[in-house]
Amino acid sequence: MSRRMGAVLGVVAVLVAACQAAACPDCEEPPRPVRPAWQSVVLPDTPGVPGRPVLRDATACAGRWYVVGGVVDLAGETRPAAWSSPDAMSWVPLPTAPVTFYGRQHVLSAAACRDGRLAAVGAKSGGAHGNPRTGTWRQASDGTLHEVDAPFERYAGPRAVNVARLAAGPQGWLIAGTRIDGAAVWISPDAAGFALVEGAPELAGDERGRTAAYDAVAVPSGWLMVGALLPPGGTALAPLAWSSADGRSWQRAALPVVDGRGQAQRVTVLGGVPVAVGPVRAGFGSWRLTPQGWRPAGGFGAAGPGVASAAGLVAVGQRLVAVTRDGDRHALWLSVDVGESWRVMTMPQPVPDSGDTAVAVTSTGDRLLLVTDDGKTSRAWWAGVSDLDR
């Protein structure tokens, strides 16, 4: 009886599989996750009151690696912190030199570098309304990271909305963000002081809707920035990109998306080709800039239980690595075909998606650097580029 029943069940299983195949002849098993051989690194304690490091961003250039964030002590007080390494394995803390009351409490949230010099954006909530008190930092020739004093309304004040990402390139430095009238930038030739560009035609909002900028990257022709547009009376954002030769005059381009919904939140350049990623209705999408304009590249992931966002994108050799958040957790994704297809990358430890967590990636040479903060501990790891072929 058991043999006969087993044979019947076997036939049923074959029939079910055949029916599934007939219903979806083109379906394929999802690709196996990429499993890098992550190597943990130790970031030494910084001078001052002992506390827990909070890591927020990482960058690399000219054979130098940087991690930025802050330290929070047992009393809940914060201070800025940064580390540097020649190889992504051995690290030293950088001296910091704040000059303002809030600068002494900054947590550095965004970083970029050029010619082996670091610059960063930091903030600390405070004041009567608890708004972020934002400022910038610039590394001197002796390695010290100095706060750059600036007028209060340069980054804050009644017209402030958001100061987002920092980019570096041959022309200097550019910060992407948003003011009350839409997308805006702050530009500088040397990171010693930034000039605000707001209300610029095509960049700011107009009769077509309100704009917001999230990230930028240097390109041979100047700058490329990505963000979103909220049409008048609309409830869904549409992805946008801008280009500029000087950071002051901008041209706008809509990124194609199936149902008109989405945001372009991170951008990088791989092999001379700009690629952007961001959330769309079904999960996440990627776009590639061609001589004919922006075109969809590929989709990946799935809609999560909360607000989805792209938290990072970096070129690693001939590959792309993206960081996403879906309201539940952070995830890493790898593309080997300029954004056309994506595979999940395993992380060395899970990182939930909440207000006090973060994941960032950067790369140079033959290594990828990952920094994480799960809300309790902050860690850093590196993996070789060859590991991404596993």
From TrEMBL:
Residues 1-23 form the signal peptide. This is Galactose oxidase. SUPFAM superfamilies: Oligoxyloglucan reducing end-specific cellobiohydrolase. It comes from Micromonospora arida. Keywords: Signal.
